[in-house]
Design goal:
Length: 215
């Protein structure tokens, strides 16, 4: 347990902001607007409970409050996190929420701030006058009155299929590799549908159904 919680973070407090994602943008640097209780399953099988936790949108890590400080958990030892009825599984070192399932297989979502997009906005968008988003984990942003209603951070939704316990990026190439030979035609038919989108949960569930078929 000594190695579970490391790395103190300095997180700026944003007042009167909404945790909603609107048009792919948010004002929050955490997934939940308020810190909330969570049950944490470690890779060792041990269970840990924390009263005030959240998920940092910069890197998908679990964070928690301790003695007035915000700390980042050692993600190497975390397996799953349960927040209320919402289950998060660690995928590539980040917490991904299970948003749907097909039998034993699952669709998972990682939501994170698009750092590259944010850096591009700094260079090209005059509504951003300054930002500090460095390895120290301290975030600060100032906007002019030119566009005061625009939410601060661009957010990416990255989906994964979890098939037979293994994560597969929800991307045409990755999914195609995972489809069984006899299901290739069904896969091509699904992704050729007019309204299919790799960023839409309903479309991805159709792919997961194909991936869940016996090869």
């Amino acid at each position: 347990m000594k190695n579970l919680f490391l790395l103190p973070l300095l997180l700026m407090v944003f007042l009167n902001v909404d945790a909603q994602i609107i048009d792919g943008r948010t004002n929050d640097i955490t997934l939940f607007h308020d810190f909330t209780p969570a049950t944490i399953l470690l890779e060792s099988g041990q269970i840990n409970r924390q009263r005030e936790t959240n998920i940092f949108l910069k890197n998908g890590a679990l964070i928690y409050k301790s003695q007035g400080k915000v700390m980042q958990a050692n993600m190497n030892v975390i397996k799953n996190v349960l927040v209320g009825k919402r289950l998060f599984m660690k995928i590539e070192g980040k917490l991904a929420e299970i948003v749907d399932s097909c039998g034993e297989n699952k669709l998972a979502l990682i939501r994170q701030i698009n750092i590259d997009g944010l850096n591009t906005e700094i260079l090209n968008n005059s509504t951003i006058t300054s930002i500090d988003f460095t390895a120290s984990e301290h975030i600060g942003i100032t906007r002019t009155e030119a566009n005061p209603d625009q939410l601060a951070y661009p957010v990416d939704d990255i989906y994964y299929f979890i098939v037979n316990g293994k994560p597969i990026l929800a991307h045409e190439r990755d999914a195609k590799r995972a489809v069984g030979r006899k299901n290739k035609e069904a896969y091509e038919r699904v992704i050729s549908e007019r309204h299919f989108k790799w960023t839409q949960k309903e479309s991805l569930m159709e792919v997961l159904k194909v991936l869940s078929e016996k090869p």
